[in-house]
Structure prediction request, 361 residues.
Amino acid sequence: MTDRADRLVAELDQIGDGSGADVMLVTSLQNVRYLTGYTGSNGAALIGPETRVFFTDFRYQEQSAVEVDPTFQRRIERADLLEGLADVLPAGQPRLAFEDGAMTVRTAARLRELLDDRVELVAAGDPVERLRAIKEPGELDKIRAATELADEAVREIMEHGLAGRTERDVADALEAGMRRRGAQGLSFDSIVASGPHGALPHATPREVQIERGQLVVIDWGAELDGYCSDCTRTFASGDLADSEEIVYDVVLEAQLAGLRAVAPGVSGRDADAAARAVIDAAGHADHFGHGLGHGVGIEVHEAPRLSQRSDSTIEQGNVVTVEPGVYVPGAFGIRIEDLVYVTSEGPEILTSVPKQLITVG
Ligand code: ZN
Ligand code: ZN
Prediction:
């Protein structure tokens, strides 16, 4: 874990549009966790070439003693997390980088208040998110394990069938199945959406029976050892209309095109465009309203982004989703989502559930 802080230090002189900084204050909890190991709900870290300080309050004294990387000096503050910040800053006129994207206006104002004029504040953007986007082997193992148990849980659902059960029942059974297999939490609230309800990309499961012969979108993920998985499959709960089967093939073709486009050096926009072109050509340009995918790790949505507005570039070591969809309002939705690890050769698919249209009666 020490080398994560070292990697951040290596970026410090380029931070803030190249102006550079001497130390960085990290306040986003996921980033604090990534850099220090701390999993509590109140903490911050100050990192520089000669500086490793972790801040928390008295409630987390014992937890932080166990969790926080021992190269960090721990400061237990009584009230305000950052009240001792000035004491541990380097001498002279340090340039202090902060996470301007993650910090509230109130915290930023408080920061200015706590520090005298000798300290120059540098808006750092999101350098820790960029580090997190490249997964270490140990992180990949955890994401792989979370994906495996989530896949097993959905296989159990497939054995028991969908038609006649409510969306809520299926979601509950799926979530219980993941917990039984060791998940410590869910990446997000599971989506089970049948028929026209599937046209809402973020549908909440209803107390409504799944009818025979519908498309059923299931999007689910497990959290294991602090890492998330994310996958979507769309099943048939019986015979479908030909028109629905045709659109399923379009989405599958788009998903395969998206997978082929995912490689180191490719922009998030170009990967998105590769899948989107297939959907556009089939006449569904207006029915794919979200991006192709996103990074997955400590958070289920993190860098890089694969979308029309993305400024990310895909890199070796990324773990990203590839998840095109077609949503026809009032009729049905179809999404196919794999989680993949980006290698120099292209994507390694972590998800193991088949992608061809499967009837789960
Ligand atoms: Zn998903
Ligand atoms: Zn996703």
The pocket of zinc ion (ligand 2) is lined by residues 230, 294, 321, 323, 337 (CB under 6 Å).
